[in-house]
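Sample intake sheet
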Amino acid sequence: VHAHGDATGRELVDTLIRKARTEPNVKLFDECFILDLLTDPPDGGPGAQCLGAISWHPRYGIQMLWARQTILATGGAGIAWRETTNPPVATADGHAMAFRAGVDLADLEMMQFHPTTLYIAGASRSLVSEAVRGEGALLVDKTGHRFMPEYSPQAELAPRDIVARAIVAQMGRTGTTAVYLDARHMGSEGFASRFPQIFEQCQKFDIDPGTDLIPVRPAAHYMIGGARVDRDGLTSLANLYACGEASCTGLHGANRLASNSLIEALVYGERCGLHAGESLAQANGRLSARDISHAQEPSRRTTLDLADIRNSLRAVMWRNVGLARRAERLEETCEIIDFWCRYVLDKEFFEPGGWEVQNLLTASRVIAQCALHRTESRGVHYREDFPHPDPAWRHHQVVRRTDQQLVTN
């Protein structure tokens, strides 16, 4: 499928939502926030099963959603980094709740950083597709110097991780906060015809790609890791499926190719739905609600400013768990997050802002630990202290909550 030049993703989402709204047996809860998965036994582990989820809705409050089959399709984790193309809701909620439920997670160190996002100080980052470079656009620094041939013989068409690191290095050399895409050879009409969304976004900041250079810099883009699933989207927790960015299918290896996230989402979304439906058709009877007990001891620690923690976490993740990583910085990150966790994870919150910070801390801590443990460079995971691939690490890295240890296979 393909739509309107660079608008395929948006059209897919709009089409699927329109279709869902016409289905009589589909009920949509807009503005619904999922807090946690319901599992039996509560702490997960061998033999556990998923029984649904706990949700919060601004109108209905806390609800128990009992389900014989549950599909986790919660999106990515880009908001854990200060610079990201992701929407504000991409707060690693699915990754964190799967971890708490004892689900096997894989490849969490593999966050892909897109090399070219529109950089306007104070504004959110928006993607400038590498297809722009495919159409002949060149990367230049503030002096107009084309620098990519110095970093790779493939120049602007090198893999995303190489281009992203080259841009960061060139910004360091020139003391700037951005480099520039020169697409002026396409002209205004040509650019607008080929990339209507990017053209529209540039116009909001009075940039005409046909006559002006486009300021760009890297940003966190796509989380390759997530709940480890099989070919039908089943996780290690019975009755729980995962698809999209919340899952780890293994299809992307350690460095996702452009656009195949859409293919993966469509294929695995369908496989999850078909397999879950077949399982329901074979089951007898209905799932009965269970008694649930919950006791949260009042926290004796100081209440910290959530907005400050969120911003500080995103800054430290960008600085220490970003495009280039080192052991001492990763160890420092784990220590810092552990400190924040002691003052945030013991609190009981009553709105999504608090839950999102708890999820961001949980996921970021595991991501940093996985990045520290993988002592090599592979794909999007680059270690300055281990700059080359190690054959001994040619496998996935799996982590689960039950034993707090990284388990590899």
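Comment: The two ends are 35 Å apart (CA to CA). The mean pLDDT is 92.
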